[in-house]
Design a protein that fits this description.
The chain has 13 helices and 10 strands. By secondary structure, the protein is an alpha/beta fold. It has 3 domains: about 180 residues, Rossmann fold (3-Layer(aba) Sandwich), CATH 3.40.50; about 70 residues; about 55 residues. The strands form 3 sheets. The protein has a 5-stranded parallel beta sheet with strand order 2-3-4-1-5, with helices on both faces. Strands 8-10-9 form a 3-stranded antiparallel beta sheet. Bound molecules: adenosine-5'-triphosphate (ATP) and magnesium ion. Adenosine-5'-triphosphate binds next to α1 and α9.
Length: about 325
């Protein structure tokens, strides 16, 4: 199952609630968490999972960590226990001066890790079904991607549900497989966005202009709705009555909290050279016309049109009914 959606749309929440729904069932979990800091660390999520599953604590000696890994691979019935130990060993803390006694090349270690993790997901399914969650595949390292391709190729013979979450800039090749289902999460409609705000205020109504400002800025992304609402509740702008909030001073626009600012800048940075154009549009205002933008930026007409097509395709800008464009945040 491929679960796609922009940052903060609710992919991890769905994965968590799937686990909650299965709380009474007998199943095993394999959880791979990709990291933006390890997109080039071969098998980072696999090795981290093996280490956590084996349970070595950071204060354990290297030998104790290896013993725990050994026990895990034996318990899982991995045919070649040494492979599993080496796989997990590659996740042992690299800063330790007395690292595990690994006498194989990094290439061999990669192969062994592929084999051990593949074996783990296969053998785990023998005793009970497996829920295999891979979070944030847009940060996958190439080797773990190979591993997944191997697993997905064989998954029909296994009692494994594999759920992969990722943001839209990642285009998984596995979407083509007939046994793979793809689901894209879209933004919340206005009514559900308003329900989320009410849930956060404990049922108390916000002043309508505040509520409108939150809904307009958040544009249906739950993370933005939550963060903007939290921000406004903690801003001192509101006084709390019995069943509502009132404004203590006129609202002069909602500030974008730092936590969102960083997330938004990361998205804008991905636009490369087109970044300046979208920033100029944003400086013009929430809505801008093509003509005004064209007169402001110093790029050719075709470059500008390509950039706007890119913004529309990536959801930064939506085309209005007339010639103006609308910038979500
Ligand atoms: N349908 C929903 N109703 C209420 N809250 C939601 C909903 N969807 C998401 N949220 C909340 O929005 C926030 C962001 O959701 P989540 O972390 O699942 O996003 P994500 O898609 O995994 O983002 P990322 O790509 O950054 O990992 C969370 O606090 C989550 O609880
Ligand atoms: Mg997430």
């Amino acid at each position: 199952m491929l679960l796609c959606g922009e940052a903060g749309i609710g992919k991890s929440r769905i994965a968590r609630s799937l686990c909650d729904h299965l709380a009474e069932e007998r199943y095993q979990t394999i959880q791979f968490q990709c990291s933006p800091y390890h997109t080039n660390t071969a098998l980072y999520p696999a090795a981290t999972f093996l280490r956590q599953a084996a349970g070595p604590a950071s204060q354990d000696s290297t030998q104790a960590q290896l013993n725990k890994l050994n026990a895990l691979v034996l318990e899982c019935g991995i045919e070649k226990p040494r492979h599993g130990v080496i796989a997990g060993g590659s996740a042992l803390d690299p800063r330790r001066p007395s690292g595990p006694p690994l006498t194989v090349s990094s290439e061999t270690r990669k192969d062994m890790t592929l084999e051990a993790t593949g074996a783990l997901s296969r053998t785990a399914g023998w005793c009970c079904p497996v829920l295999f969650i891979l979070e944030d595949a847009h940060w996958l390292d190439p080797t773990t991607r190979d591993l997944l391709t191997r697993i997905i190729g064989r998954i029909r013979q296994m009692r494994v549900l594999l759920l992969i979450t990722f943001r839209p800039d990642f285009k998984p090749v596995w979407a083509e497989y007939s046994h793979v289902t793809s689901l894209t999460l879209s933004r919340l409609p206005r009514r559900q966005s308003a329900e989320l705000v009410v849930a956060m205020t404990g049922g108390k109504a916000l002043p309508s202009e505040v509520q409108q400002a939150i809904l307009a800025k958040a544009d249906g992304v739950p993370l933005y709705i939550e963060t903007l609402t939290e921000n406004v509740l903690g801003s001192g702008l509101l006084s709390e009555e019995n069943d509502s909030f009132t404004l203590t001073c006129p609202l002069k626009g909602l500030p974008i909290p730092d936590s969102l600012q960083a997330l938004l800048m990361e998205r804008v940075d991905r636009l490369g050279s087109a970044k300046e154009i979208v920033q100029t549009g944003a400086a013009i205002g929430r809505e801008f016309t093509y003509e005004l933008l064209q007169a402001t930026v110093e790029v050719s007409d075709s470059e500008l049109r390509n950039a706007l097509d890119l913004f529309v395709a990536s959801g930064y800008v939506s085309r209005g009914r007339d010639t103006s464009c609308d910038l979500p945040l």
